[in-house]
Amino acid sequence: MKFGKVEDPSQIDFSLPETPKETIQFLNQYKSDEGFEINIGYPKWSKADLKGFYPRGTKDELRYYSEEFNSVEFNGTFYRSPSKEQVLIWKNRTSDDFKFCPKFTNSISHYSRLNNTVEKVAAFVDSTVLFEEKLGMGFIQMPENFRPKAFDRLEGFLNRFPKGYPLAFEVRHEEWYNDEQTLNKYLKLLKKTNTTNIIVDTPGRRDMLNFQLTTPVAFIRFVSSTDVIDKLRLSEWVTKIKEWKEAGLKQVYFFVHQKIDPETPFLSTEFVKELNEQLGCKLPIAQKKAL
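Above: the chain sequence. Below: its structure as tokens.
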């Protein structure tokens, strides 16, 4: 994810904002002693993208990945809507508790820009629901030039979207975030349509760290900066997730975007260890094993 990159991350204030009291009150409606789930992963699972991760001789990369991580931000579906047969193949190659978060195809978000997409959405949904218990949450990422002037189009799209299919949504243009009335209108629509607001933690767009949750699910896309800074950033996220869990949060999808080469360790390793320690989770701790 090149979006939001900066030349010098050391000049960025990476501190996370305080959680709005409205979010705490909203999450309190879902507060209980049971039902919390956290999913951690990366955007892709191929050897080309996770250099140095797979032991030599690994034949089924997806199977191995699913044993080391419990989720994937599945960007592969952005370029082509998958067939039902392909979805079943992916589903059957993963471990029992694994979750796919498929990205809706760019023919819906970027080319059609939500216009006349009923058939395309239906085809994507009809295929990906076959992930069944392994379907985490589908998500739509709009292009950066999709602006609030298209709000009516967005509203119609979300009102028509198939009910019951878990959906997260991301808008990028600054106008969605720098006007309080526009932002509140957008978040109100997401809440009304049971759509999760995607939180993007990337160096150059701190305005997208909006903590007004619209469902009891947090969908977070974390973009790396430097190793030293990122460890501090991720540690702060552990504290934030713990706060939200205690307030009533039910699910977390947290995806790490980082440049990976054979010498670079996974940012997620220490992050998961701290989550397990602080939240009592039992997440798998993935480490590179290739020589």
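The mean pLDDT is 94.
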